[in-house]
Amino acid sequence: MTVRKLSVEYDKALAELVRDNLRKYGLDIPGTVYFDDNLYHLSDYYDAEPEKRIYYVLVDGTDKVLGGIGLAEFNGIEDCAELQKLYLCDSVKGKGLGYKLMEHAERAAGELGYKRIYLETHNNLKAAIHLYEKCGYKEIKRPESVVHSTMNRFFLKELQLR
User: Fold this and answer.
1) Nearest to 87 by CA among 31, 32, 49
2) pLDDT confidence of residue 25
3) Domains: count for the chain
4) Quick one: pLDDT at residue 133?
5) Mean pLDDT in consecutive groups of 10 residues from the start of the chain, 162 residues
6) CATH, residue 11
7) Which terminal residue of the chain has fewer beta carbons within 10 Å of its beta carbon, N or C?
């Protein structure tokens, strides 16, 4: 399995992966990324400001998208990136690949000059919450600048910059 920067040829498969995951957890509802206008064109969004944003896809040997994770600026907290759209195919869940993607994102955040990473999630995503806590994210109160109104858990991590 290989981690690659998101490009246009992965957009459709990634959008379908995101939507499939949200459906399975009862989050295919307004106020989630399920209804974001740019979901099928995520490469455009991340490529628009490469000095502030990046998205990685996890692909297998046949170039099938198995997962992904992204970062973009978060204006609610100083020097902060928002971890976005961490999703995996069911067939690879539980194999440590979420940790691999988290490491990639955290390293990229430091390279982009961020000092901390914020994320928002939902109680329904218990495995994701476990992953975030194991990776050192601490739960915080809901920031005033939250976009997705349906999310109900919020986390922050101070990066260990080298």
Assistant:
1) 32
2) 87
3) 1
4) 96
5) 93 95 86 85 94 95 94 92 93 90 94 95 89 95 78 92 62
6) 3.40.630.30
7) C
pLDDT value at position 147? Answer: 60
pTM for the full predicted model: 0.90
Tell which phi-psi region holds residue 96, choosing left (phi > 0), alpha (psi between -120 and 50) or beta: left
Q: Which amino acid is at 10?
A: Y
Provide the pLDDT for residue 18.
93
Cβ atoms of 104 and 68 within 8 Å: the answer is no
Full domain range(s) for residue 154: 2-158
- Would you state the torsion angle of the CA atoms of residues 103, 106, 107, 108, taken in this order, to the nearest 10 degrees? 120
CA gap 56, 2 in Å, rounded: 10
What pLDDT is attached to residue 161?
Answer: 66
pLDDT score of 34: 83
Contact 81, 112 (CB under 8 A): yes
